[in-house]
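Appendix B.2, paired examples.
Example (i):
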Amino acid sequence: MRDPDSGEQPSVSGASAAGRNEGQTPSRSGKGKRRRGKPSRMTSANASSSANSGETGRPELKDATGEPVRKRKRRRRAKSGAVQQAVSARVVADVSVTKPAASADQSSRKRNKKNRQRRSLQGRPLGGGDKARPVAEVAVKPQPQNMASAARAEERTAFSQKPHEDRRSNGHAFSHGFDSGSPLYAALDLGTNNCRLLIAQPTRPGQFRVVDAFSRIVRLGEGLGASGRLSQDAMDRSIEALKVCAAKLKTRDIRKTRLIATEATRAAENGEAFLERVLEETGLELEIITRETEARLAVSGCSSLVGRETKSVVLFDIGGGSSEIAVIKIGENRSSRLANHITHWTSLPVGVVTLSERHGGQDVTPESFEAMVCEVQGMLSGFDCPEIHALDNPGDENGFHLIGTSGTVTTLAGVHLDLPRYDRRKVDGLWLSDDEVSAMQARLLSWDFTARAANPCIGPDRADLVLAGCAILEAIRRRWPSERMRVADRGLREGLLTDMMADDGVWRRGRARRPMRGSAPHGSHEGNTQ
């Protein structure tokens, strides 16, 4: 029989138990000296004598001293007065040394416990001094009847996969640390497919730290190609997402904000009427930007990914309703704003939503894929731009490369890395060779809609759009062949923030502060005008 306290040991007989009740308790002098689980020492004579004792219960065991072996139970006993005095004297003597260490250890445990609680609520720890409340915390509080609280209630579904919700961001906010001494800037981009918000503050020269962010797939341009108008359902989805953004902006002291709308609102007959409704229901006043402005903002947002050794770049942003392309030539005197080096640019009136609606995004065959590529190539043929070899030295691998900023290229990167879940830290800034891009496109083309939807880096919300984006990418690669392409998980919002901060001169005047310890964790967005 196995004793859970003492290891392999027979139970005591009934007679021994009776003897213990009569006061024959063993001496405490050997307490703690025998290790738990250590077999008792017995002589062979004692063992045979016990076996032949003739008692009706289990045989009584004796140790080498002749004392009966009794089962020990762990008890808390009061220590003798002498022992207590000795222990007390030792504690008093060492209190000056142990107390500070205990306090520091206790403080560390409390801090670690607090961080674990925050991780459980929001998925990542908040930086020190962050005043932003986790989404889960907002969700459980009483909801007063006003627009801001209603928008917060909207966030309770952030971690569930609702239709038209971006699986990669889950439609919720995340915080990367907040420094109350630095000003806040906000940028909102309402595109054909997504509604995105960033709130950030400047840090080191040319960089910023994200304080809050929001992203949700709204498909504002759904059906726009066929009707020329924004549908009622698409506008309703977009306004619900904008209400969440409005609530976030109201809880912050924002120094400067810029809210933009792009191709869907720009091309729709009822685009202006939609923006009036947005202002009435959310209080947000959005501006419709031009295609040239959109191209410049995309370049500004990705400027930190263009190295000093690069001589020329073709940067493209494949959107939902349009695709912007900028040719950048960098001379010896590089400006602090990369957008100043744009030599040629164009905006194609086609994006992943419009192209997939025309050719079908669910069941894509090699023939229909090639038809999409040819359509985009026809649009690019009217773009008057010199050949890339006229811009730099051919054969120089650092001289020219492509930069892609869109859901299409980030999806290709995630599939290439076989990520179990999309991770911006591993995708943003990743280099892909020309052969790797071709292999990923062929892999996606071999999958049916169900397989694409099951991939964690695509999901059901993008499964019908990703191949249309690959077709646009393929047309760009055929026009500007390159050995390398860099992936950028950034775009218009980062460009807006960079421009606003540069216009205010926050970096030039040295007003930006160094990031706080632990406030630049994984996945943080950073811009760089260099």
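Example (ii):
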Amino acid sequence: MLLQGLVEYSHRLQLPPSLYAPVQIHRLIDLRLDGAPLGMVDLREGEGKRKQGKLYPAPSLGNLRTSKIAPVLLCDNGGYVLGKVAEGKKSERVQEQHQAFKQLVQECAKRLKLPEVQAVAAFYENHFSALAIPDDYDAAENVTFRVNGQWLIDLPQVAKFWAEYAARTHEITGEPAECMVCGEVKPATRIHLVPTKGIPGGQSSGMALISVNSDAFESYGLKSGFVSPLCLDCSERALKALDVLIRDERTHLTISNLVYCFWTRQESEFSIVRMLSDPDPNAVKHLLESVKTGRPSAPLNEPDFYAVALSPNSARVVVRSYLELTVPEVQRNLAQWFEWQRLRRDPESGDTPLGVFRLAMSLYRESKDIPPHVPETLVRSAFTGAPLPNFLLQAAVQRNRAEQGVRYERAKLIKAVLVSQETQLKEALTMLNRELNDPAYKCGRLLAVIERIQGAAIGNPNATLTDKYYGSASTAPASVFGVLLRMTQLHLSKLRKQSEGRAVWLERELHDAMPDHFPTTLSLKEQGLFALGYYHQRSEFFKPKSDAIEEGNDDETA
């Protein structure tokens, strides 16, 4: 269960107190113990308009802070703390906010009787007008207090007062119920306060992971968050742990509007993010070797591995998938994943493993066009070893037709889809296979040879035969190859006059790539084989000169 996994993970983290959250604090009001101000300290970092406040755990109301007046204890914006009117705000409402903030400070000082909090109360009663507010202060900036060097929001008594006050005032919890995570009977959380931030395309103020806003989602007379009862501690722990995962670059991968988060039940040296984002060839080689020799880089008793895929939908978070696996299982499947996509030019050359983004991006013109389900499917397959679905192959062959050619990244993805569905093709499609007599594969090879002959005969034409005929050749070979072969004979005749050796070599390649017959139409799988045949043959032509077979092979590179 996702929430249980997040709560377990939270116990390894140093989380802020209840009803606290990381807040950007821009200024600090420094006070003496008698409440006299020493000035305002600028906590912002950066240059010019890019200055950002210091991210610090502070009292928070999360998504309860709506249109109503609701002060936050000892840390709030300039309207509440200083009565400063921001642009577009009404002066009367700001003054009401300021009075509410001061009343909350007075209540806290009266209840706790702490000298530091009483100093803030004395500041508002006797010394407020003595505070010099900098000219560059923006009323939208958050302000907190320091007394005798002590940040008041760090005091445990202040944190406890705030949790009790906010829960009571805003009715955060309701009747006792059995918590879905810890199993204890505690007051259930009516509304889950920690908004999920950091997912591209979502609301900047955050989105709800757990919410009920319609009668259709209510049952057995239960409303709001009571339909899925969680105690306040488990609710906060789960959502704060998710926030940490999304903010830590070591535990999440962001692709377009999808965020994939990963963690293990206990501390582990196994890191998955680099393998999926920008895999290092040496690291991949080590992973493959360790799996083949039966020595995984993590011991077999490694803790459980968790992964969750998230994307935005209006004001809510969509959980696209959730996985619970073991680390050795993930390592084995990940090694298989890199084997699926392996492409080489010749037996001696290596392979460049690709991350999920480059594979997904090969299907679209721009990264913003990548739908969340594409990278989610790729990552899930890498973790679980499940075959890649045909919709990825369909998108790849459509992109080939649109671009009239096959890019390296797309060839690897096509190979991965085909091999994941038929493992016996793994070695057959790793590099140019002259023994593979599949008509679709040979048709792809043949188109690359025809393109090469044209280029050798007339140089660099503005539009190659592939630019004009790739779409038709890759779907209905019988309809176009007759025309292409007649044109090729004319190009060969011209080439013989220029370079007999090159003409003889290319004619041999032409006969080697000729299929037994030209299919009328090609299925989706056959279109994938066609694309790989075309890519393999072109790679053969564009090998480095030291490996070239063709006499006079020119300087083109794949």
